[in-house]
Predict the 3D structure of the following.
Amino acid sequence: MNQKIALNRNENTTLKETSKTKDLVLTGLLTALVFIATKFINFQLPFSIHGGLIHLGNTMLFAAAIVFGGKKGAISGAFGMGLFDLVSGWAVWAPFTFIIRGVMGWVIGTVANGKGRNGDSFRWNIIAILIGSVWMIAGYYVAEVIIYGNWYTPITAIPGDITQIVIGIILGLPLVTALKKSKMM
């Protein structure tokens, strides 16, 4: 009897370790996807004075947060886009991005998956993205004020932020649907 209990404990420990490993690998993969979509699929708006970078990182962040929840959305957004800033000549932005995108991913994932919705409600997914996006725009506005010491110049980055959000919604929500229908899920 004691041997059987010991075997069950070992099996449970192995299952927990396997689950933690899968969780870590999935979180790393989502972070890498956010980073790659930010780093390699982007262009800069010609009319923005200090930035206006348009990228598809939001598409991956939206999908990660809606499909896998707030924790993975926060981690993949914070680390994926923060790493982009560090390796792309935008290092001064990295601490701001880490916080702004981390909170954005958490908000989107939490709202989209709250009250048993599990990211399945198109309406709540849009609401989640809009709430997270208002946070992002406000956060980057304040960050630009801090970095550049000017209240007016940061306004030029807002059209780029809105463009990123719209593109993220257009591409991200169909990706969410495809992921949720896939056999992997």
Q: What stands out?
A: The two ends are 37 Å apart (CA to CA).
